[in-house]
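Protein in question quoted in full.
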Amino acid sequence: MLNSFVLERQGNKIIYGIVVYDCEKICSFISNVNFQDAKLILDSVQEAITIDDENGNTVWVNRACEQLYEIKREDLIGKNIDTLEKMGVFSHSVAKEVFRKNQQVSILHNNKKGKRILTTGTPILDNDGTIKQVISTSRDITELIVLKNDLEDIQNELEELKERQQVIFNDFIIESQEMKNILQLAKRLSQVDSTVLITGDSGVGKGEIAKYIHQCGSRKKHSLIKVNCGAIPESLLESELFGYEYGAFTGSKKQGKVGLFELAHKGTIFLDEIGELPLNLQVKILQVIQDKEIQRVGGLTSIPVDVRIIAATNKDLQNMVVEKKFREDLFYRLNVVPIHIPPLRERPEDIFPLIRHFLRKYNKKFNMAKRLDSNSVAILMKYPWPGNVRELENIIERAIITTRQDLIIPQNLPNYILNVGDGSSDIVFPSTTRNLKDTLEEIEKQIIHKAVIKYKTTREVAKALGVSQPTIVRKMNKFKITDGDFNDSNNNADS
């Protein structure tokens, strides 16, 4: 902006200084200074300046105008604004708009090379309020627009990074407060040697919590031995757990074998699926907890073991106690501090962060750049996930491997996911005769519109859909979704 200027004549020379540019001040400057002097000054500024008379004929342009529109000033001066529009010099004449509206007007248009030009036309009025001149100033703002878009992209990346940092809690991808509370409890339990029983459906991450407890505690320098009690044949389970001496049974090794409890000495043993443990071995596990020693199969001496026991199950052990399928005394020994991990369907806040995490993980693993479209995300968010986190991870890995294009759409998801519940019943699929881009945009518009109706602010919409708030604002502008659609428009101050 031309906030100040200095004009001084020294003999035949004019000494001047111009600081940033302002259209109205230039108009005032031209009106109050000898035009010949003004031309010398205006020819030195970087902004393109055009002066049109009351009939719309160009009477003068500066050098910057020649450069911006790539035309000599003699080819501009004397020509009417209509003629210049037809010549393609200006795609849209701002002076014409000034004459029509009798006020200052700004427009954004392109020059011959497609650069974005911001032009402001300001009328110079006579005493009767009639336009006697229009002074137009133009500047190339292509780089500004690029910088603005780059800034938006950086802001979006920062928002996504911030969101990612919010959901990575002690290396766990979570958003729900319930899971954060579980991890905080696990962290406290890691500092003591109490026996822990972790319960929850298959695939919720019981093994990860056990690993976390071990790694945060004083035993982390020693082994974490994992035993799946349901995967080892009952006939072999005792010798696997406690080891055996030579001659304990036919085919035993001459040197005998060290059991898993001995391998876990000074460390932790994780007894997964402990509900599958036979009753006769339940007694021996109870003895290990009480006496802190084991006896190998076929052995006569006891071997001291210093080991922490963490057990896990997807079964109702209390009910098994009632049914005499699990020892009551062992249950209470194991259940000193219980941790129950809720299924994924009960903590939907964690679904999208996990989707995003697995997309990154397997894109990196397979050197790909696949992404999910909005409708696919909506379907995955509504699916009940009976297989929990493990099932979600498998689905994302499968989609990345099997989808040929970079965008994963609903048709790339397994049919059993598409057909469960109302995963997509509230989304109207456009006609298949439309191209894919238009179809996806229409679906995206529906998803965003429904979220805007459901939630109070753009931040809540962004959180629900797993994107940044600036992205939601930009999408709402693109699809002409207004703030009035919010559930409570009085609360959308952050929109």
In short: The chain has 20 helices and 20 strands.
